[in-house]
Structures are given as C-alpha cells and as structure tokens.
Amino acid sequence: MPRFLISIAIVLCASTSQADVWTFETPSENIQCVVGEGASVSDLSCTIIERSGAPAFPRPADCQSDWGHDFFMTNTGAVRMLCQPLNHNRDGFDRAEYGITGTFGGFVCHSSRKGLECRNEVGHGFFLSRAKQSVF
User: Fold this and answer.
1) Model's pTM, two decimal places?
2) Cα 27–117–68 angle (5° rounding)?
3) Where is the signal peptide, in residue numbers (predicted)?
C-alpha cells in the first residue's frame, strides 16, 4: 500500500481532539503539500517548486517575496496564494503516486500525470502543474 494511503488511514483513525499534520508530494517531487487536521478546521497548503506561465492571481502590490508558488485553503474557505520565500527542498514527503485520490480533513486531492487537483468541502480548490496553475 503506498505510503500516501497509509498516512491517510492513520490520520482518519486518529483522535480529532488534537491536530494532525502530514505531508505528500507528486512523483516528480515538484508539488509538495502539507495538511493540518484539527477538531474544527483543517488546512491544506501546496507548493509548486518549478512553474511556468502566469500565476493564477496577479501579484499584490505589497508582495516583495516569491509569488505564484504557494496555495493555501481551509476545508471550507476560498483558495489564497501566499507571498513568501519559495522552499526548494525536495525531501521527506510521502509520495502520492499518479492515479491516487486521497480524501482527508475535508479535502479531496487527485494526483495524475497532468498535475495535482485538490478541492475542499465547499468546492473551492486548485489545479497545479508545471505549465499551469488555476484556482476555482
């Protein structure tokens, strides 16, 4: 069983009285995500390390750091892009093999050769690939 599915199974069986945090990445190691699941709210942040094309949102005037790489949402909130230094580290994440769909903390993420798509409980989400990043 892939480590990604084992991680999800462990989290789903854990007590919801404390926050659980785990990570996963696409097989290319270009998209890495961190999930935090608590008793009342969960969050998901994903980073695309190497990307091309225009960012999904225009750069805010007050953003003086890297832009277009970091995506964040809660289990019921809209997607936000974060203005922060890009972490180029490609190590230590569980692998979400292509074709795997994970359901956890109010999110559904699907890893494919085309990219990674994640949605929350109310339908907000994003699609990330090297060539395209979109928010819905």
Assistant:
1) 0.83
2) 85
3) 1-19
